[in-house]
Design brief:
The protein has about 400 residues and is α+β, with helices and mostly antiparallel strands. The protein has 13 helices and 21 strands.
């Protein structure tokens, strides 16, 4: 790289800042410019994890780590050989941002504030002399004679030797119009990481209630995810639902987000094992239904709702209950069917699958195979992770690799 080279990063989010900082550190004599189309940068970083910034996930096994990417598992496994979770932790620690691990293995700044990460990035940008330009919407990128011309809306064009696109995901293909001169293969963008809206909202009276060990199955597709589940005022959320929405993003789009799910409220049981336990208690104890929630380890309010659905009185003894009523209760506990009508996506943390096809990218360098000098990182690529810090880890990893700029 010549001493007067210009590197332009397009997009002022997590991947953009990480690419800019690492590019400036790796190529100290280059001019590094970051363009952001809006008036604010790092907005997803700010709101992530309820304003605490879920930086990454405590998973040092890169094979296990890569399993959390519904799109890009194989490619991210390759990329993690260059930069993975330990590298992320070390990178932030070297810049005085210490991370902590919570019980669910998500990792946050010790400060519990996303502002700590933002301040770290801004400090590095200032220190390294990176130019950040706001309200710079890129309309077109053209390559000619080994140089890139970046046409910016209502502003003077910028010339660059290298371009790293970190624009994030778009909800429509037309969002990628600024790349049209390169004739890249684009995958139609679709939502990933969304919650399920219920048709019959009776259970939403329990809004705010969570269960720790549910299993949620899309009945027509046989796709299932397990984990904590949250009842909301519109339907269902929580890690099990969000993970299922990510892995089934394509299938649920085909169904136009109208489908049936079956919930097992405690995945330690099946209908058969639960029925067997109840029948044994029925024959050997004087237990009544109202106290039975402790036996199956579900919240009392949920248990009361299930009893009502099964038309069982709490004061009634198990021994006085018909096998038919027991079977109905077991099915409600382990195979509770709900009709889903639509989804809810949180705009601030919107995640898409789709974008630049990974066939276009050399994952060892993040450079476009068709266009030398053009790199991609972050969610603009057809890579998306489940909730828990995996999308940020993909941003750090791909941006770090792109920032090397010299193909290996």
């Amino acid at each position: 790289m010549s001493t007067n080279s210009t590197i332009v990063i397009i997009g002022g989010g997590a991947a953009g800042y990480f690419a800019a900082i690492n590019a400036a550190e790796n190529h100290q004599h280059a001019k590094v410019i970051l363009l952001e189309k809006t008036g604010k940068t790092l907005q997803k970083v700010k709101v992530s994890g309820g304003g605490r910034c879920n930086v990454t996930h405590h998973c040092f096994d890169i094979i296990a780590l890569s399993k959390n990417y519904p799109r890009g598992e194989r490619e991210m496994l390759q990329a993690f050989h260059q930069f993975a979770v330990k590298d992320t932790i070390d990178w932030f620690a070297q810049r005085n941002v210490k991370l902590k691990t919570e019980n669910d293995q998500r990792m946050f700044p010790v400060s519990n504030s996303s502002q700590t990460v933002i301040d770290c990035f801004e400090e590095q940008v200032q220190k390294l002399g990176i130019k950040v330009y706001l309200n710079c919407e890129v309309e077109q990128i053209i390559k000619s004679d080994q140089k890139f011309t970046i046409e910016v809306k209502a502003k003077q064009a910028i010339t660059a030797d290298y371009v790293i696109v970190t624009s994030g995901g778009f909800n429509q293909l037309k969002g990628y119009h600024f790349l049209s001169s390169f004739n890249l293969d684009l995958i139609n963008p679709l939502p990933s990481l969304f919650t399920f809206n219920l048709e019959n909202k009776c259970i939403t009276a329990l809004m705010g209630l969570s269960v720790p060990n549910a299993a949620v199955t899309i009945q027509s597709k046989g796709m299932q995810q397990k984990g904590p589940l949250l009842i909301t005022h519109w339907g269902f959320s929580g890690p099990a639902v969000l993970k299922l929405s990510a892995f089934a993003a394509l299938e649920l789009a085909e169904l136009n987000y109208n489908f049936d799910i079956a919930i097992n409220w405690n995945n330690n049981f099946t209908s058969e094992t639960l029925k067997k336990m109840i029948v044994e208690l029925k024959n050997s104890s004087a237990k009544i239904w109202s106290g039975f929630y402790q036996e199956i380890n579900i919240p009392r309010r949920l248990h009361e709702f299930l009893l009502q659905e099964a038309q069982l009185e709490g004061a009634k003894k198990l021994a006085e209950t018909s096998n038919k009523s027991i079977e109905l209760f077991c099915n409600l506990c382990c195979n509770h069917v709900f009709t889903i009508k639509g989804k809810t996506t949180f705009k601030e943390e919107f995640v898409t699958c789709g974008g630049i096809s990974l066939k276009e990218i050399n994952m060892k360098t993040m450079m476009c195979r068709k266009v030398p000098g053009l790199y991609f990182a972050g969610e603009v690529l057809n890579i998306d992770g489940v909730t828990g810090g995996f999308n940020f880890q993909a941003a750090w990893t791909t941006a770090f690799i792109a920032a090397q700029l010299i193909p290996k």
